[in-house]
Each structure stands twice: as C-alpha cells, then as structure tokens.
Write a structure and sequence with these properties.
The chain is built from two helices and 25 strands. By secondary structure, it is mainly beta. The N and C termini lie far apart (about 45 Å).
C-alpha cells in the first residue's frame, strides 16, 4: 500500500469514527449484564471490524483494534472518559501507519503491549508480526519498542498478555510447538524474558490455539481454538484453571452462551467491574431463504454484518471451574 492510499484510508477511518458517533457519549462501564450484550453499540462496536479490547483499571480508558471490512488495514483506537463523558474514539497517536492489533495494558496502565507488522530491528524488509510495547510518559505514549529476539522471531508473534509478575503469554507457530499454532509462555526474571515454552497438552493441541488471556494471578487462562471436536464452528473460546499442584487443568469449551458457529476470540476480563469481554464475527439471524438486493445492502451496512464486534457479560455468569 503506497503512502497516498495509506493516508487516505487513515483519513476515511477517522472520519467514519467521528461521523458515526457524537463528540461525547455515555458508556456505562459499571454495568454488568447478565446476558451477552453488544458493547458500545455504534460507538465501540460499529459496522467496521472491531476486535481486541484493553480497559484501564479505573475504567476511564479503552483501547481496541479497529479495521476496514476485510482487515486490510487495522489500527489501535482509544477513547477516554473526560468530565463524566466518553470522547469519540480516535486512532492512537503511535498507530495508524502499520498493522497494529491486540492491545494489552499492564496493571499500572503505563505500559501498552501490542502486536504489529512494523519493521523491526531496523530491517525495512521485515513485515512479520512481532510484540511491541510503549510506555506512557507525561500523558503521552512513547515510540514503540520491540521485545528482543528471545520473543520476536522471523515468524509471527501475536496477542501479548501479561500476568501481575510480568510473565508473558503469546501466540506463535514454532518448531518446538505442539500444533499448527500454539500458546507460549515466557517467564520474566530480573527484567529479562527467558526462552518461551509452549503450554502443555491440556492447552495446546495439534490444531490451532491462539489469543490467550492470562489472569493477573496466573491461575486462569482463556483462549481460542480451532479444529477441536467439541467446537461450535469457526473457532471457539476455551478456558483452563490451575489445580492445587499449580498445573493447568484440561481445557473446556465455554459453551453455547459464548460460542457461536462463527469465530469467537480475543478474550479479556475487566476484574474491577467483573465483566468478561470477547470478539465475535457472528451475524444477526434474518430467517430469510431469499434476500432482495435492498435487504442485502441493509444487512451489509448493519453493525451485525458479520465483521468483528465486541461483546460483554457479567463474569459470574460463566462457569469457570
């Protein structure tokens, strides 16, 4: 994509974000729905493709991924609560040029991890996805820094998630993995990450495991998998908890309340407000065998057009045990 078309696409997405939303909007973060709820209808979740979400501990900042319909271009977007109102989402200042996805805020809110295909280690010919971070200094995000080569290889690294003790969980395809795509863990000791290791067969299978969220206490893992016998279709969300011996228990499908026949992925838990968030490509059921062109246009321009949206539900409604 040349510079002109890239800049045009950025401008279109920014105009879309502004035009679809008022300058300020109420967004009730304290609400904890008992049933699955589309999150931030026409504000966070729109007719574009939204996925991945990170929420600050005080609930006043939301960072998420927004892209065009086919995700040819994806950016990190941010909205903040000011004077009791939410400001319309805008592209994060450190994003907008490369494919930036999958934000994760450190517990203190001052380090942002994400995956990006931006050139790494000064090599302009590199466009694989790697894990980067940016620190907040004086209210601004610093120039992103790539994690070192013990984490970032010439393959793809996705979906960083960090526990309270700074251990890193992420997705990758590597020779020492278990399946076609696996979840890895890298322990951090004295400020340095050790060699990542794939999680065992209670999590990773011969199929695809990806997009894992680790709880701060490192005792709950929620992730997506594709290709298992018990899936509903398209890729489902699964979970595993630590047993009394500190081992991961056999992972379980999160069930029909969460999973659909479409892709369900990108889990996140807002512990302070007791909500579980995830992304789904599920569409609205129309019940029609034959559609008109006008109906097709209407469906294509709907928020429920099958592109990614973000959903939430009260965490206590999930049987995570």
């Amino acid at each position: 994509m040349n510079k002109i078309s890239r800049a045009l696409l950025v401008s279109i997405l920014m105009i879309f974000l502004i035009s679809c939303n008022s300058n300020i909007r109420n967004l009730n973060m304290e609400e904890s729905p008992e049933n699955i709820e589309l999150f931030g209808e026409d504000f966070i979740s729109t007719k574009l493709y939204e996925r991945d979400i990170a929420i600050s501990q005080d609930g006043a900042e939301i960072i998420f991924t927004i892209g065009d319909y086919k995700q040819h271009k994806r950016f990190l977007a941010v909205t903040t609560k000011t004077n009791g109102k939410w400001i319309s989402p805008e592209i994060l200042k450190i994003s907008g040029k490369y494919q930036d996805i999958e934000p994760f805020l450190a517990p203190d809110g001052d380090r942002l991890y994400f995956a990006s295909n931006r050139p790494i280690f000064g090599k302009l010919n590199r466009d694989d996805y790697n894990i980067w971070y940016s620190d907040r200094q004086n209210g601004e995000w610093t120039e992103p820094v790539a994690l070192d080569t013990i984490i970032n290889t010439k393959g793809d690294e996705f979906y960083p998630s960090v526990s309270a003790n700074n251990n890193l969980y992420f997705t990758a395809t590597r020779a020492d993995g278990v399946g076609r795509e696996d979840i890895f863990k890298a322990i951090k000791q004295q400020g340095i990450y050790l060699k990542p290791e794939p999680l065992d067969s209670t999590i990773n299978t011969k199929n695809f495991e990806f997009n894992a969220y680790i709880s701060p206490k490192e005792d709950l893992l929620i992730f997506s998998s594709f290709g298992r016998d018990d899936e509903f279709g398209g890729g489902d969300l699964y979970f595993s908890i630590k047993d009394d011996n500190n081992n991961w228990t056999e992972s379980k499908n999160m069930g029909a309340m969460i999973n659909s026949q479409a892709l369900d992925f990108c889990p996140f838990i807002d512990w302070e407000r007791n909500n579980f968030y995830f992304t789904s490509e599920k569409r609205a059921a129309d019940g029609l065998d034959v559609m008109t062109i006008e109906h097709l246009k209407e469906e294509g321009n709907s928020i429920y057009n099958g592109f990614g949206n973000i959903y939430r539900i009260n965490l206590s409604k999930l049987e995570l045990n």
